[in-house]
Amino acid sequence: MINIMSHCNPEERQVEPWVNEEGFQKLNLKNVETPCYIVSEGNLERNLKILEKIQKDLGVKILIALKCFSMYSVFPLIRKYLAGTEVSSVNEARLGYEEFGKENHIFSPSYTDKNIKEYIKYGNHISFNSFSQWNKFKKTIKNSLGRSPTGETKKKVSCGIRVNPEHSEGTMPMYDPCVPRSHLGVTLANFETNNMEGIEGLHFHTLCENGADKFARTLKAFEEKFGKFLGKMKWVNFGGGHLLTNSDYDLDLLYKVVSDFKKRYPHLTVYFEPGEAVVMNTGGLVASVIDIFNNGVDIAVLDVSAACHMPDVLEVPYLPKIVGAKPITGNCKIEGEKNVYKLVAPTCLTGDVIGFYSFPNKLKIGDKIIFLNMAIYTMVKNNTFNGVNLPNITKMDKKGKIKVLKRFGYEDFKRRL
Predict the structure, then answer these.
(1) φ, ψ of residue 239 in degrees (nearest 5)
(2) DSSP state of 242
């Protein structure tokens, strides 16, 4: 028995049941250049059809949060099904405006005299994080005309306030906007009731990888605190973090909760802004085994990095699923497991460890492996620490054909510095 307790984290996230291998388990990797991200159009469209049905059945609008996924080469497919984009920076706002071309909703805690003009130009809904920011820029908004997503007409931006219902459903403070002294959203105690002229919507975003039950409790808390203001609003945004396309998501409960809400407030346009629900199970990250050696356990050096290419593995932390492999979780003991390898990165960071896995056969130098669910928070968060190259970005069509869309090299690394 080899004890690997030093790698354990008491809050380690278990592998989610919805992370499956569909579209990737039979993929021929022979000619795939690594490292590379692969996004499956078939899996993506499956998610989009679910979201489209939710939109039609409930009469709501669903936006894709670009902070999770900004691969604009598949925007033509996504915009066939969804209402628009949710963005949190000028760069995201411009990308949503230029490449998606539908509704473009903006939230940021840091509008400035300079960037507010860009936001107005690219967006049609802007949510403010505080009444301080609203007071500073409401005249700018009132006196300016923004372009519509198509650029064909002129229209004023619709403004909203992000609120904090002070109701936590998450277990990780890092991803919980309702922690004490949070800087995200206005609490009821700080809500300026007499400063609502020009405000047309309320926005809350408190969930993270959550189901309908947690949304139902959050919505109840939101209504108890802020429901009295909804009668004068035009829209409400329920934020992201809803795992709407998860195989065990309770759609019946979602339909009941939203339908009841719309009966109480039939005048409101209701928005959801998920990111993960749009692209879960659509992406893989293909890696090659570069070296294998032993130091108490077999160690396999890969050409992918947790720190550089899938940062949430270290930040959450969690063990990503690998096609055909078993992650070693729980009490972190590998007694009885066969072909166990510690998968590590090509960087000089000691902690750049992906995790321990058991494989059906012994690994060999040159073997390729696929990490699953790697469209979310990977390409948007990756970096070139240690000069490590970024993975190619590729797209897989419904027939399994892979097309390389972007290759990165020295010039990409150099230009950032």
Answers:
(1) 75, -165
(2) B
Contact status, residue 311 vs residue 382, Cβ threshold 8 Å:
yes
Report the C-alpha gap between 41 and 37 in whole angstroms: 13
| Mean pLDDT score, 77-84 | 98
Tens-place pLDDT, residues 89-136:
999 999 999 999 999 999 999 999 999 999 999 999 999 999 999 999
Token pair, residue 326, equals: 């078993």
pLDDT tens digits, 2-44: 333 333 333 333 333 334 566 687 788 889 999 999 999 999 9
Q: Residue 124 — φ and ψ, nearest 5°?
A: -125, -5
Q: Is the pLDDT of residue 150 over 80?
A: no
Contact 280, 288 (CB under 8 A): no
**pLDDT at position 16, please?**
38
By the 8 A CB rule, do 372 and 24 touch?
A: yes
CA distance 313 to 127: 30
Q: How far is CA 47 from CA 167, 256, 274, 399, in A?
A: 29, 21, 12, 18
DSSP 244: T
Length of the chain: 417
Q: Pairing state of beta strands 283-294 and 326-327? A: unpaired
CA pair distance 4, 1, nearest whole angstrom: 10
Residue 279 has pLDDT above 60, yes or no: yes
Beta bridge partners of 9: none
Task: Report d(CA 200, CA 262) in Å as an integer.
Answer: 17
Q: What angle do CA 54, 55, 56 make, to 5 degrees?
A: 95
CA distance 182 to 45: 36
pTM of the predicted protein model: 0.91
